[in-house]
Amino acid sequence: ILAAGVAHEINNPLGAIMALTALTLEDVEDDASRENLQVVIRQTERCRDIVKGLLQFSRHSKVNPELANLNKILRDTLSLVTKQAQFLNVNVEINCAPQLPPVMADKSELEQVFVNILINAVHAMKERGTITITTRQNAPDNSVEVLISDTGCGVPPDKIGQLFHPFFTTKESGHGTGLGLSIAYGIITSHHGSISVESEVGKGCTFKIRLP
Q1: Are the beta carbons of 202 and 153 closer than 8 angstroms?
Q2: What pTM was estimated for this model as a whole?
């Protein structure tokens, strides 16, 4: 509740800063001044993304579950994100179990989880490599699993435990808000599922999502 309140309060002045800076930029001809104003816009956009992440983080407990086809949700998500320029040199391999049982889930929230993980994977591979997506049924407890693997830089063992912490990021300063994976964690746990990651430095990461 506090995060949502703060985010809403910050949103309005941020919008005003962006609008006024953009208007000023149109009237400025000096290259140095234009460059400074462009930095202001970029950093304000970053603040806006953090605020958006805070709002998403505060809302993840509101789940509207229905019977859902996990394979279809994954394919729908891929059809959206793979059209982005950053996926141009990324190969996506899909191994979906044909008889995967449905899950009780909020489709839009699961799409958000998959988008966050896929974008994270592309950044880890510096927009070049292979993402492998696998779905399967876990017989012992009748759960279903989604595995998303990348061929990126991987995460050091001492950082693995922090990946799902809010605002933690392995990206360079100014890239990403550090909220994507914590939002994914919140969504999956609100679905009574689990999310974990295995990684080897220099060889990539595998995210495993398990849903009842």
Answers
A1: yes
A2: 0.69
